[in-house]
Hints:
Strand content: 25-35%
Helix content: 25-40%
Largest sheet: 6 strands, mixed
Number of helices: 4
Amino acid sequence: MEFDELAAIAKKALRPRMLTESSSAGSVAAALITDKGNVYTGVCIDTPCSMGFCAEHAAIAAMITAGESRIVKIVAVSEEWIVAPCGRCREFIYQIDYANLDTRVMLRCGAVALRDLLPHIWNQ
Length: 124
C-alpha cells in the first residue's frame, strides 16, 4: 500500500469535535499498515492536564488489541497536512516492537525510517 492510500484512509477517520468545553477529539487521525497487511486507524483525544493521547497511540492500541505489533508504515494527518509523530509516539512505536525501527514514517518532506527519527536510542 502506498502512503497516499494510507493517508486517504486516515483522512476518512478525521472527525474534529468538542467532547466537553475543554476536551476535543478527532483533529488528527493516523493510519498504519502492519507486516500482515492489516490497516488500523485512530484519532487523537486532546484534554487538559495531559490525559489525552495522540492518533498514533490510538491506531497502535487497535493493532495491539488485534494481536499485532510490527508496523510497516504509519502516517498521521490533520485537515490541512501530514503531521509528524511527536517524540512520545516515536518512542512508543519503537518500544512495542524493536523491529519497528524500520517502520516508514510519512513526514511532509517524504518518508523516513523511524530509526532516522530516533538517532540516539536510550537502550542501545
